[in-house]
Amino acid sequence: MAEKIGVYVCHCGSNIAQMVDCKNVVDYAATLPNVTVAREYQYMCSDPGQELIKKDIKELGLTRVVVASCSPLMHELTFRRAVEEGGLNQFLFQMANIREQCSWISEKKEMATERAKAIVGAAVKRVAFQEPLEVKKVPVNPNVLIVGGGITGIEAALQIADSGKKVYLVEREPTIGGYMTRFDKTFPTLDCAACILTPKMVNVAQHPNIELLSYSDVTGFSGYVGNFTARIRRRPRYVEEEKCNGCGLCTEKCPISVPSEFDCGLGKRKAIYRPFPQAVPNIPVIDREHCLFFTKGICKVCVKFCPRGAINFDQKEEFLDLEVGAAILATGFDLFDASKVKQYGYGRLPNVITSLEFERFSHASGPTGGKILLKNGQTPASIAILHCIGSRDTNFNEYCSRVCCMYSMKMAHLAHEKTEGKVYEFYIDIRAFGKGYEEFYKRLLSEETVFIRGKAAEVTDVAQTPAEKGRLIVVAEDTLLGIVRRTPVDMVVLSVGLEPRKDAADLARIFSISRSQDGFFLERHPKLAPVSTASDGIFIAGSCQGPKDIPDSVAQGAAAAANVLSLIDRKEVTLEPTVAVIDEESCSGCKICLGLCPYNAITFDETKKVSKVNDALCKGCGVCVAGCPSGAIEQRNFTDAQLLAEVESVCASGK
Amino acid sequence: MRKVESNFEPKIVGFLCKWCAYTGADLAGTSRIKYPPNVTPIRVMCSGRVDPVLVMKALSSGADGVLIAGCHPGDCHYTSGNVKTIRRFKLLQRMLDQFGIERDRVRLEWVSASEGERYARVVENMTETLRTLGPLNWNGSEEV
Question: Which residues of A touch B75 (CB under 8 A)?
Answer without folding.
Answer: 508-509, 514
